[in-house]
Amino acid sequence: MTVLASSLVVSGPEAADYAANRDAMLEKLAAVEAEHAKAIGGGGEKYVARHRERGKLLARERVELLLDPDTPFLELSPLAAWGSDYAVGAALVTGIGVIEGVECLITANDPTVRGGASNPWTLRKALRANEIAYANRLPVVSLVESGGADLPSQKEIFIPGGALFKDLTRLSAAGIPTVAVVFGNSTAGGAYIPGMSDHVIMVKERAKVFLGGPPLVKMATGEESDDESLGGADMHARTSGLADYFALDEPDAIRLARRVVRRLNWRKVEPTSGSFPPPLYDADELLGVVPGDLRVPFDPRDVIARIVDGSDFDEFKPLYGASLTTGWAALHGYPVGILANAQGVLFSQESQKAAQFIQLANQRDIPLIFLHNTTGYMVGREYEQGGIIKHGAMMINAVSNSTVPHLSVLMGASYGAGHYGMCGRAYDPRFLFSWPSAKSAVMGPQQLAGVLSIVARASAAAKGRPYDEEADAGLRAMVEQQIESESLPMFLSGRLYDDGVIDPRDTRTVLGLCLSAVHNAPVEGARGGFGVFRM
Ligand code: COA
């Protein structure tokens, strides 16, 4: 055993930094929690009360009843649409939970938010959920009740939105089961959700599944009709055959959905191994690791020691490229390779070490965890001459073509191409979560504002014009503020650039749930199949 020692001083006269870090983190966490509460509040009191008066369950209540008792639900992208004109949460709940012992990807429309209509962020969130189901081979259960496309924003969703139905049938073609439970409206394009699912359950006198409702039919053909004869559960169960199961009410529909999952004969590729030791250090201390000011470095081993089994970590090449910590551990019994930024900057040595480490993980079929706190690759004459572009490219090549599952956690900074090399969003990590302390952008706000100012000054000089210093100071301050706000985790989560902002104390649990989810698909590393490594 190679048990990590902790450098954190958590009590006594030397613990001032720890206490300050902890206070800063708790403050940020409270702000995130306030936004999560908005997502849980759905469309607000009035619409929630109206929904209940109709005798209906809320989206999250439906999910809770569907899951095995006392099992966790890993909710994804709860802050989708944050900072946009649409409600936080994007009128859709998505996440991973266990039904009859089977890990499933669950989606549930929130009908209290504008009738559950899909806006551009709902669409992105739903497409992301499908991507997760496909990559990790998770059966999909859709709890449907939606007004279809959010009509005023149709231009953003109609054309790309077709992918939702394509995804369902591709999942089915890949042998991944899909189940639709229809609690209410599922009309027009929405009708293809049950239409393309392997198994369909509809709720009596509630489900409405038709391509066109009575007014549209009247306009199109002059025919007089009503909701029930066009698309009620009874009609679909007896006449059209679209419904496989006729549920008497909502709890009955959930019971039937659980029965369907039970009969899927779904076998996980690699079940979780039995028992594993917890870390030796308290997860609560993760609150005090990251300094409020990200320019102050911290030791990522203090994080690793609090998330891996038994705090046991075999470091790879500790003396070489020391600004990136790499090594082997287990998390909830699953073997993992970890890459964690130590001093922020990535140099040539760090990049080469990362490329080698990623190749090793692929040779051994070991999933990788990337813990981000990087300001990017080193710039400057010495480093350019030393080949930093080639070496950074090597690391990015290795990350891009690696086929073992990648999990990313943004703990602190994640700037520039460092975000790419550490498996940022565009590099398809299976899951990516942020801590409330994270910041991500092309570069830091001050640096970006400074670069803009230097460029503007040079441009004025080239034109022989005087430079307005006062306007420059104002512009710099404004740009700094804008970039700072656009670097923050709630903003990035709102745009679906991560799968959620998590409490640092939950990191081990969240990563454990993710590792369990990824093992529903075979974990196979790339043996070769990398691009040309420039040496
Ligand atoms: N696009 C934009 N807004 C929508 C919407 C949609 N597709 N569906 C509902 N809304 C809005 C409503 O205008 C209403 O807004 P308001 O409260 O500010 O007045 C709010 O969402 C709630 O709708 P409401 O009709 O009061 O809720 P309901 O639960 O009684 O009925 C529906 C829900 C979905 C059955 C009903 O709103 C409906 O039929 N919508 C249109 C469905 C449709 O034809 N969609 C196009 C499919 S491609």
Write up what this structure looks like:
- By secondary structure, the protein is α/β, with parallel strands linked by helices.
- It folds into 3 domains: 44-262, 2-enoyl-CoA Hydratase, Chain A, domain 1; 283-442 and 488-518, 2-enoyl-CoA Hydratase, Chain A, domain 1; 445-486, no CATH class.
- It has helices at 16-40, 45-53, 59-66, 120-136, 154-161, 163-173, 192-196, 214-221, 227-231, 233-240, 250-262, 301-304, 348-364, 381-385, 388-401, 416-421, 445-462, 469-487, 489-494, 507-518; strands at residues 74-76, 92-99, 102-109, 140-146, 178-186, 199-203, 245-247, 314-316, 324-331, 334-341, 345-346, 368-374, 376-377, 406-415, 431-434, 439-441.
- The strands form 3 sheets. The protein has a 7-stranded mixed sheet, sandwiched between helices. Strands 8, 9, 10, 12, 14, 15 and 16 form a 7-stranded mixed sheet that branches. Strands 11-13 form a two-stranded parallel ribbon.
- α4 (120-136) links the parallel β3 (102-109) and β4.
- α4 (120-136) packs parallel to α6, α13 runs parallel beside α15 and α17 packs antiparallel against α18 (469-487).
- The longest helix has 25 residues, at 16-40.
- The model has no long low-confidence stretch (mean pLDDT 96).
- The protein binds coenzyme A.
- Coenzyme A is lined by residues 114-115, 117, 147-151, 185, 187-189.
- Residues 114-115, 117, 147-151, 185, 187-189 line the site of coenzyme A (COA).
